[in-house]
């Protein structure tokens, strides 16, 4: 994997984790998003600026990953991006959302990252 490919994967991971965090800010305190059906959920998402920003960030993440896939094998790029997202989301969820980082979560992330490392070699 070349340096530019890795930078594109990193960009994809950063925007993906940012998008998920924005969705949490926008809807994490609410109950069932689908309680009014699919159409109601679409309108709630479209009317929530955090959700709209999250969708935009998912789109940017998609663009970075698309560009990365022109340089890096899918079987390497996607697991590496996913592993980076796991680490980023774990940190963000702890710092900004006061979620607990338990021993089991750390073990799970370690096992996932071990698998990503094995795949990327």
Description:
This protein is globular. The protein has one domain. The chain is 80% helix and 0% strand. Helix 1 packs antiparallel against helix 3 (49-68) and helix 4 packs antiparallel against helix 5 (103-120). The longest helix is centred in the N-terminal third of the chain and has 25 residues, at 3-27. The chain is an all-alpha fold and 121 residues long. It has helices at residues 3-27, 37-46, 49-68, 74-97, 103-120. The model has no long low-confidence stretch (mean pLDDT 91).
TL;DR of this structure?
With 121 residues, the chain is an all-alpha fold. Helices cover 80% and strands 0% of the residues.
Q: What is the fold's blueprint, element by element?
A:
Elements: H1 3-27, H2 37-46, H3 49-68, H4 74-97, H5 103-120
What's the multimeric state? single chain
What is the residue-mean pLDDT, rounded to a whole number?
A: 91
- Fraction of residues in helix: over 70%
- Kindly report how far apart the N and C termini lie: 10 Å
The outline comes out as globular
Number of domains: 1
Computed structural class: mainly alpha
Give Rg in angstroms.
16 Å
**In terms of per-residue confidence, which ranges show pLDDT below 50 for 5 or more consecutive residues?**
none
> SSE order in H/E notation?
HHHHH
Largest sheet report: none
Binned strand content: under 5%
């Amino acid at each position: 994997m070349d340096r530019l490919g890795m930078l594109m994967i990193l960009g994809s991971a950063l925007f993906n984790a940012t998008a998920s965090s924005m969705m949490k800010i926008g809807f994490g305190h609410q109950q069932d998003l689908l309680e009014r059906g699919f159409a109601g959920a679409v309108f709630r998402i479209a009317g929530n600026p955090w959700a709209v920003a999250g969708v935009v960030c998912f789109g940017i993440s998609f663009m970075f990953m698309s560009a990365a896939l022109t340089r890096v094998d899918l079987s390497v790029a996607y697991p590496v991006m996913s592993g980076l997202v796991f680490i980023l989301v774990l940190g963000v969820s702890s710092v900004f959302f006061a979620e607990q980082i338990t021993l089991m979560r750390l073990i799970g992330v370690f096992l996932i990252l071990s698998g990503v490392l094995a795949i990327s070699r």
